[in-house]
Write a structure and sequence with these properties.
alpha/beta; Rossmann fold; two-stranded parallel sheet; PRTase_dom; transferase; PRTase-like; glycosyltransferase activity; Phosphoribosyltransferase
């Protein structure tokens, strides 16, 4: 069925983010900070921060998707841009909801590359076509994903 979708509920998100944190911990990676790709990455980043006892969370606002399977030609970093001095020498866990094309993750990972000691990526979902193969993935899918934070229309 071509319009079949992955549906992530709030309850399943709790279990998925906990499992993602367990993967990071089992791998022995101890991030100094978590870099959330906003907006969808805010939710897994917060959950990972609590589960991994990491209080140092940063955000990087990247615009790419404009609708269901609709996106800009290239991802664009929106202000405020993280200060490189805050990342220098750190072990960074980049968190996002999905590695779809991988363009956004690649942009963020490249931004970090010359400044951090190490950067790894954690996502709830990874699609087979993603240019970036994440170190920590809860589930792989090739379907569109309905996230609990973005399925309802805005109230304004």
């Amino acid at each position: 069925m071509p319009d079949e979708r992955e549906v992530l509920t709030w309850d399943l998100f709790g279990r998925a983010s906990r499992r993602l944190a367990e993967m990071v911990a089992a791998d022995g990676f101890r991030p100094d900070l978590i870099l959330a790709i906003t907006r969808g990455g805010l939710f897994p980043a917060g959950a990972l921060g609590y589960a991994l006892s990491v209080k140092n969370l940063h955000t990087m606002n990247v615009e790419f998707y404009t609708g269901v399977d609709q996106h800009l030609e290239m991802p664009v970093v929106l202000p405020p841009v993280p200060q490189v001095v805050d990342l220098t020498g750190a072990r960074v866990l980049i968190a996002d909801d999905v590695a779809d094309t991988g363009e956004t993750l690649r942009l963020v990972r490249d931004f970090c590359a010359d400044h951090v000691a190490e950067a790894r990526c954690a996502v709830l979902y990874e699609k087979p076509r993603s240019l970036v193969k994440c170190e920590y993935v809860w589930r792989s899918t090739d379907r569109w994903i309905d996230f609990p934070w973005s399925t309802e229309p805005a109230v304004v």
